[in-house]
Write a structure and sequence with these properties.
single chain; alpha+beta; 4-stranded antiparallel β-sheet
Length: about 290
């Protein structure tokens, strides 16, 4: 799933290509992708793009008084096209979910692989009309989100730090992959309770969060939209690298599996050398 760094890279990518351009047409091609119906997509026809913004993992294309907002979810992709075939695409066929064409003939497709259709597109007058945006916590790269603001946010929380980092209503934009990376850099167990974070640990975690995300944004800068997934994967130190050697200490990276996701960590760097319990694997071994 694209997270804050990749969506920020898409924002910059589209800012260079869309702002000041006129939209010819927006064509939804999958009935499930469009989550709003008033105004209709035709309201964007002839509108000029004025700005590109990011809200957590949401991408916001402003055109006139309207905002075309996208959440790519797990399998969504944005693919830039310099031109499109003359024949219109067939709705419901293949991964193509929505097409946006500029009057110059270029534009982008939104595609989604697989059968679980979670890609979401909204057309609204105010981004706050999108429920996922309305509930977002602060952006971790905002200058105002300093160490003290982070500490205040965690005050009163009592849950595993991995889950807290992924909670979009607490902190916007961090998902499964970068929460693994942040905790590895901070040398903390994903099972550590937020209530057990000392002042030193809070400082260390805040620094790890900022540097990990800033480094990922810098790596993604200038990368073509279609290559962001590969760039994200190549920059990971522990996430998605089960069985490989930790780049810091050389220990074997381990995994804990859940029903619909998994986390990766280094026992030596993060858990005092002790493997975390994997309840799903334990059940399989009984």
């Amino acid at each position: 799933m694209p997270e804050l760094p990749e969506v920020e890279a898409l924002r910059v990518f589209l800012d260079d290509r869309l702002v000041g351009k006129e939209i010819d047409r927006v064509v939804p091609l999958n009935v499930s992708v469009l989550k709003t119906y008033d105004p209709p997509p035709t309201a964007l026809h002839g509108a000029t793009v004025t700005a590109i913004a990011r809200h957590g993992k949401f991408l916001d294309i402003a055109a006139g008084p309207l905002h075309l907002i996208t959440h790519l979810a797990r399998a969504g992709r944005l693919r830039w096209k310099d031109s499109f075939p003359a024949a219109p695409p067939r709705p419901g066929k293949g991964p193509l979910a929505l097409r946006t064409v500029l009057t110059g003939g270029d534009g982008f497709d939104l595609t989604e692989a697989g059968t679980a259709k979670r890609l979401a597109v909204y057309l609204v007058h105010d981004p706050a009309e999108v429920p996922g945006i309305a509930r977002l916590g602060p952006d971790p790269l905002d200058d105002s989100f300093d160490r003290d603001a982070f500490a205040a946010l965690l005050a009163g929380e009592r849950r595993r730090i991995k889950g807290a980092l992924r909670d979009q209503s607490l902190i916007a934009g961090i998902g499964n992959a970068y929460s693994d990376e942040i905790l590895h850099v901070a040398k903390m167990s994903p099972y550590l309770l937020t209530s057990n974070l000392t002042d030193d640990r809070i400082t260390r975690l805040h620094t790890a969060m900022r540097t990990t995300l800033q480094d990922a944004v810098a790596r993604s800068g200038g990368v073509a939209a279609g290559k962001l997934k590969a760039e994200k994967k190549s920059g990971m130190r522990v996430h998605g690298r089960t069985g490989e050697a930790c780049p810091v200490c050389g220990d074997t990276i381990r995994e804990v599996s859940f029903s619909d996701s998994s986390l990766q960590y280094c026992p030596t760097c993060q858990t005092g050398g002790k493997p975390l319990a994997d309840r799903r694997l334990s059940r399989l071994l009984k």
